[in-house]
Amino acid sequence: MLIVFEGIDGSGKTTLSNRVARELRQAGLRVRHVREDGKLASPVSEGLRLFTKNPLHLALTPMAELLLYSARETQLLEEVTRPALAEYEVVIADRFLYTAEVLARWGRGLPEHAVRPVVDACTRGLRPERVFLIDVDPAIARARRRISKLLAPDTGVPSSRKGLAGAGMQTRLRAGYRALAAESPEQWTLIENTDVTLEALVTQLTQEVLRMVRGGEPGTPSSTPRAPTPPRSADEARARFLERVDRWMEEEPGLAAWFLSGLEGADIDERRERLATRCPELIAHGLSGLTDASAWDLRARLEQAAPVQVLGSLKALAAESPQAWALRERWEQRAPEAVAASLDGLGSEQAWAMRERLHGRFPEPVVTSLTRLGDARAWVLRERWLSQRGGQAALDQEKVARIACRSIRGVDDAPAWDWRERAWEVAPDAVLRTLEGLDSERAWALREQHAGRASRLVLESLRGLNNPRAWALRESFGVSCEEALESFEGMDGATAWRLRQALADTWPAATVKSMGPLASSARGQELISRLLTDHPRDFALLRQAARVAAHPGQERRHATA
Ligand SMILES: Nc1ncnc2c1ncn2[C@@H]1O[C@H](COP(=O)(O)OP(=O)(O)OP(=O)(O)O)[C@@H](O)[C@H]1O
Ligand SMILES: Cc1cn([C@H]2C[C@H](O)[C@@H](COP(=O)(O)O)O2)c(=O)[nH]c1=O
């Protein structure tokens, strides 16, 4: 019997399929998992996976990508799954050809008639007995993945082509999986994994497979919960958001801590306090960009437990406050790399003096802190670092090229373009990230050439740019890439509002975020109320609406639209 786990990235397929396999073995069944612990059992398939993930292959077309993903699954099917079906009672797969189909059709927009024949030729009639669609709100799946990344020690995970199309890709893929499940309800079971513990799901799925193995009818699929009544205003959204956070507080405190990130108000501070001992790294990380008294107080109390995250939270502070400098000085000896990284983009004498002290022992974090600095002093440090690595030729090494690109982000002079040219051969995605805010002809040419294959990077680089070329790219790619909206956060004017209105129902949360302070204007409030009514299940929207609500301890900001 073939059991497949499908779902978007971070939905829980790997964790659940492994735990269920273990439980079934303990129940006495002979079980083969063809992707045990996340590793595909066929080395050829694993090689194809690495190939498709490699950002060097930025230029892959949708059809070529479909063929490669199909090849990966077909090889696994022929080499491992089919033989295992003859030998084991239960064979478990973490993804199947549905993944290739959903990515091609819903992710890249290829028509069904171009995709289905490819997939059918690969499966040759093999149909899994059951497909468990692990279904999660993409904002929650993303948060869970980012939490585990933040808490895991740096394992040197290579950069990935995944994600270059933008966070909205997961919304499209989720819609695709749900459409396939609706087409074959007798084969697919939708498993809701948003407000449920892993333990409960492992038990439910194990029981379901045992029932099938014993010849029983499949259990009744859990019914989709009714849509909640929509909140009518940002203030009501904030209350709903906090209710949701409170439910996670016990069962999944990491998620509660994560979603409080960057929010202000006494009601938020009180919850941060409650989570600070259990999730110090996540709470410290979430102080990023906050400058109110309670944020500084919490930083001081968390610096022993989570120094790296506390120092990291200083990066987003444009102002060089005395509290930030006191913190850096306290940790300069004990966490020098995190201190160096926290100097990101700072150009004061104090920042240069600290860089000079740290550069000898920690050149990499110092060099990457030179973002947006194009003056002679910055280039002296950069050139010193590069000559220690072997000079310009070292930019042909991916690791060196990636550090170099982080250093020249937002820098538009001739030496920066020389570095970009060399780095392109080994790290094109990193080069596109360096275009942040650049308005030169070379930057526009690169953007326009690569927007189709790396839309997120290109659109993010438009942040703050208000000219016809920037708007043309936003218009062209906004429907498929929500990062278009974030790139004009806080901008007023007819074009900005027209684009917000046009994209609002595709990307509700990003639309609210893009308003920035304009969200509290009459026009902003009206749009938020409408979106809350029409998208009552969208957690990311609820959070953005909660962010702009009036909150205890602060006057509501007013702006005109
Ligand atoms: N119900 C849940 N409660 C708590 N944590 C969860 C839950 N479901 C998933 N997670 C956590 O979410 C993270 C992502 O899960 P997992 O790696 O299994 O997802 P995945 O679908 O296999 O993702 P990918 O396709 O990216 O490999 C893991 O850290 C996992 O422990
Ligand atoms: C390129 C790309 C892929 N994905 C998704 C859809 C793919 O089929 C899976 C493969 O993931 P795995 O970890 O190798 O099993 O990833 C995506 O979400 N975004 C992308 O850009």
From TrEMBL:
Residues covered by region (Disordered): 214-235
Family statement: Belongs to the thymidylate kinase family.
InterPro entries reported for this sequence: P-loop_NTPase, Thymidylate_kin-like_dom, Thymidylate_kinase
Domain (Thymidylate kinase-like): residue spans on this chain: 5-194
GO process annotations (BP): dTDP biosynthetic process; dTTP biosynthetic process; dUDP biosynthetic process
NCBIfam families documented for this protein: DTMP_kinase
Job of this protein: Phosphorylation of dTMP to form dTDP in both de novo and salvage pathways of dTTP synthesis.
Gene Ontology cellular-component terms listed: cytosol
Name listed for the protein in its UniProt record: Thymidylate kinase
EC main group: transferase
Annotated source species: Cystobacter fuscus (strain ATCC 25194 / DSM 2262 / NBRC 100088 / M29)
Keyword ATP-binding included in the entry's annotation: yes
